[in-house]
Specification:
alpha+beta, 11 helices, Rossmann fold
């Protein structure tokens, strides 16, 4: 049976994934990339097997719903690398529709919103972020919150026509703060027309759910305060769900966030428990290592705490650590800006491999794949990295998403081979 599945998987790769000229990796165009190292480490490790078992059930039986959560900083807030991986995972074989998952109205928080959905709002809103020294309200899974006391304030979310996977939904889960029971939330669907729905609130978790009678592809929420309201209405995120089997990919990013930033989020564990992730990708670390000497003990301990928070919500969750990309630091000497390679990238890489061994998790070694220390300059010269040699271009982020997808599928294929022996 497993041998047959392995053969069917190979056919699927040709039909929907690696065989497509539009998605095949452009290896000849970028010979400086260490393509042979684009794999999940330790190679052949069983750390991701619980995720692959779920993927196996979904692919070959059409059963189950898989939740992937991807944490990061600015690399993830823009949702280009994570958005590409979401697109590849949700479309490389037929019948896997999945859901759009958790989103946040970044525009209200006066920061860049992912390009794959649009946010409009009215009324007076404030915001809090985990990169602030003292956020104004408690924070949760998304690392941000927006809040208002303005009765009648609203927000709308829609998906541009060019987005391939829009994630139609018939269940809306709103992560709210304490005191939300003193506010009514009015839901409107496409074209701002009233939609029949059932509303249910979970007082213990402060989650409000809307069960819709028909699928929607956009939404408007209007916040109305009651006379009893004494505290602002707090919104942590909106989860768009449907009942279809498939992979739901939740991307969580905050510009400038470090491991310490996410440990500040007191509600992260309770929110994560509601999602119960099957695979968690941690791409946090570039900001920890940005300046000065990296505090190795603190960084290691912070990551260990994050890993164990995930395990507390789902002991079977597979965890994949993404090493820092190679990056540069910049200095101004007189009127000239000078860039020098950041040696902390190698330190972070070493720590993550040590954590993989001690905590039983996996690693995707981007630092090594890029070419190691100083390689960001080469990526910039080929239009894949930005001038700061920290961030990537749109083309670069998309390439990284494709590379991660290939690494996961290669590792999944090893899993199938091992089971067929």
């Amino acid at each position: 049976m497993m041998a047959l599945r392995l053969m069917l998987f190979g056919i699927l790769l040709l039909a929907f994934g690696q065989g497509s000229a539009q998605t095949a990796l452009p290896k000849s165009s970028y010979p400086f990339v260490q393509w042979q190292k684009n794999n999940i480490q330790p190679k052949g490790s069983s750390s991701l097997h619980p995720f692959y078992a779920l993927l196996d059930r979904l692919m070959f039986k059409g059963l189950g719903r898989i939740n992937v959560v991807h944490f990061g900083g600015s690399h993830v807030q823009a949702d280009i690398i994570s958005g590409r991986l979401r697109e590849r995972l949700q479309s490389f074989y037929p019948g896997n529709l999945g859901s759009r998952g958790l989103i946040f109205p970044y525009s209200i928080a006066k920061t860049n919103n992912p390009g794959n959905y649009s946010v409009k709002y009215s009324g007076s809103w404030s915001y809090a972020k985990n990169v602030q020294s003292s956020p104004a309200v408690p924070l949760g899974l998304t690392g941000m919150a927006v809040f208002t006391s303005d009765s009648g304030a609203s927000l709308s979310i829609s998906f541009p026509d060019y987005v391939k996977i829009k994630g139609d939904f018939n269940l809306l889960r709103i992560y709210e703060g304490a005191g939300s029971e003193n506010y009514d939330v009015i839901f409107q669907g496409e074209d701002s027309l009233p939609v029949a729905y059932r509303e249910f609130r979970h007082p213990e978790t402060h989650i409000r759910e809307f069960f819709l009678e028909k699928h929607q592809s956009r939404l408007t929420l209007t916040i109305l305060s009651r006379d009893s309201a004494r505290t602002p209405y707090i919104l942590y995120g909106i989860q768009l769900e449907n009942e279809d089997p498939g992979i739901t990919y939740h991307s969580i990013g905050v510009n400038g966030a470090s491991t310490h930033s996410y440990l500040k989020c007191n509600l992260l564990g309770s929110h994560l428990a509601e999602i119960r992730p099957d695979l968690v990708l941690f791409g946090v670390g570039i900001n920890d290592a940005a300046k000065g000497d990296l505090d190795v003990a603190t960084f290691t301990n912070n990551y260990r705490k994050l890993i164990r928070q995930v395990r507390a919500t789902n002991p079977q969750a597979a965890i994949l650590l993404l090493t820092n990309n190679d990056s540069y630091r910049s200095y101004r000497i007189r009127r000239r800006r000078v860039y020098t390679p950041n040696p902390n990238g190698e330190l972070v890489r070493k720590i993550m491999h040590e954590l993989a061994e001690s905590e039983g998790v996996a690693v995707w070694d981007l630092f090594e794949i890029m070419g190691g220390l100083g390689s960001a300059k080469i990526w910039e010269e080929h239009g894949l990295a930005q001038r700061d040699k920290v961030h990537f271009t749109f083309k670069g982020y998309r390439l990284l998403g494709d590379m991660m997808f290939e690494a996961l599928l290669t590792d999944y294929q090893l899993y199938l081979k091992k089971r067929s022996e």
